[in-house]
Amino acid sequence: MEFSDSPYGLLFKSLSLIPISHYLLGFLLILLVFLYNFLEIHILRDLIITGFRGHPVSLTFASGSELYQVVASKCQILHGRYLATPWLSSPHLQTAFLSFCGRPPIFSYRRQLFHTSDGGTIALDWLMNSDVMGVAINMNDTICKDDKTPIVIVIPGLTSDSASAYIKHLAFKIAKSGWNVVVSNHRGLGGISITSDFMYNAGWTEDIRKIVDYLHCQYPEAPLFAVGTSIGANVLVKYLGEDGVNTPLVGAAAICSTWDLLICDRFINRKLVQKFYDKALTIGLQGYAQLHQPILSRLADWEGIKKSRSVRDFDNYATCLIGKYETVDTYYRRSSSASFVGNVSVPLLCISTLDDPVCTREAIPWDECKANKNIILATTKHGGHLGFFEGLTASSVWWVRAVDEFLSVLHSTQFIHRKKEAQPSPSHTPLESSIDQSPYVSITEEGMVTAIVHKKTEMEEEEGLYHDHKLHTKKDDDKVSVAESSSNKDEEERTCPKTELSQPSEEDINGLTAPAPARRRMDQLSQYGRKSIWLLVYIAIVTTWPLVGSALLVFLKRKFKNALPAALLSR
């Protein structure tokens, strides 16, 4: 039987008759189906399911939240829908378009240099309301000290600065609304060299704390707000949780926060498409390190930085060494903001998307946000990482409009003028209690165990306040230099109340003068202990008597065989 007469030969002959163009069309169709699923494109679902009306925004907040009733309920954007730009109906297309294009507005910042106490330099880029309103002013003009115009502090993401497209969108929108904006660039970014033996990381909150305190002292009449994006959002939430009611900020927003760095690290190495982002972020970090090679090669493992193939590798060879973290996992756990959410004491809007290809939805602290009455969590079904482009021309960013509306409504209400309610122990780290802070404990009349804290007298308190005042006066080592013009240097340093635990007296330590309630409790515990011991003896005898009794009977039979009656031995 010849090959041409076999079934395979006939099949091959039939396939050869099909034009090559049809094969190309079939291959193109298969490729489109693969890319549609690989890139998670959802344009057909938007058309069929919602009819291009978009998906509603989901809001999570505490039951009976006053922040929702007074502020969020008046935000139409948060109660509306989000529809992605049709030709960007994919989280990966949204994120890539933001990185490579973004269509940012065109304007110029005013630069101010802030010098930290450890010798670091931070570039503060200002965009005034007058700069975008077309008012012709001198670039050397500065904000008056008694100016009441709100100021929004923007914290960029990883390797991003004030020139990033999404930062420009946000700054322009807020300035257009009549506010002043200042972008706090991370150390070594914004065209500024690293001038100290330290670089920024995801858990470093000291820089933003210094910036906020400085702006509050410079412009005490201006309400201060803050917006953090990506890693900057993680830093902002962690700072708010650490400072609690002591922060001068009156409102904030966290966009696409990483929340839990350990979970995000696992997620970004899970799928092939996520590994592309991991590689892209690593290249960006290596480029950042290359700009500051003279100092980073001395502080970190330069050979390890050059051969890093992931963000985790870079953190191992650079971040952990400079930040003094034992391991990468230790750095991720200590720097994650999710464990600080419960201590946030100012109105906070959190925006995340469920299809974020970098900061996974698995890291969102849903329960923690719902338990804190100062937080509104808004989630959208689509949007990518910081993308959220909308409209046919992708000229608008949804989260920028949502943040602008939320902060405007918040400022227009009396909510921010009320005293921020204290959250439990803002000065303590999460999961710590007052007992962990004191080496000695006391027993109250009700039997509760509490930490012993030495209460100061009025004279000691006055001396302590005077001493703190002198310390803060002498500790004024943060200096600010303005690139455009020299400013007034006699600024005040904000003093934050501190809780100090003093050593108890020697009599309290040795227990000679224990209070009467404590002695009564100790006596009761002693009586309960004696009763418990006799009860245990009784239980032990009852439960072991069958075995012990049988053994004792056998022993007696053998020992007193001749002395005992025969009737007893026969039993």
Quick tags:
16 strands, 571 residues, globular, 10-stranded mixed sheet, 21 helices, alpha/beta
Secondary structure layout:
Blueprint: H1 7-16, H2 20-38, H3 43-48, E1 55-56, E2 58-60, H4 66-70, E3 81-82, H5 91-100, E4 110-115, E5 121-127, H6 129-132, E6 151-155, H7 165-176, E7 180-184, H8 206-218, E8 224-229, H9 231-243, E9 251-255, H10 261-268, H11 272-291, H12 293-299, H13 302-306, H14 311-323, H15 328-335, E10 348-353, H16 366-371, E11 375-380, E12 389-390, E13 396-397, H17 398-412, E14 441-443, E15 449-451, H18 458-474, E16 479-482, H19 506-510, H20 516-559, H21 566-569
Parallel strand pairs: 6-7, 6-8, 8-9, 9-10, 10-11
Antiparallel strand pairs: 1-3, 2-11, 4-5, 4-16, 5-7, 12-13, 14-15
Q: How would you write the strand order of the largest sheet?
A: 2-11-10-9-8-6-7-5-4-16
Work out the helicity level. 40-55%
Low-confidence stretches: 419-519
Please state the overall shape, judged from the principal axes of the Cα atoms.
globular
Helical element count? 21
Q: What summary fits the major beta sheet? A: 10 strands, mixed
Total number of beta strands: 16
Query: Which percent band covers the strand fraction?
Result: 5-15%
- Estimated radius of gyration: 34 Å
Alpha-carbon distance between the two ends: 99 Å
**Mean pLDDT across all amino acids:** 81
Which structural class fits the helix and strand makeup?
A: alpha/beta
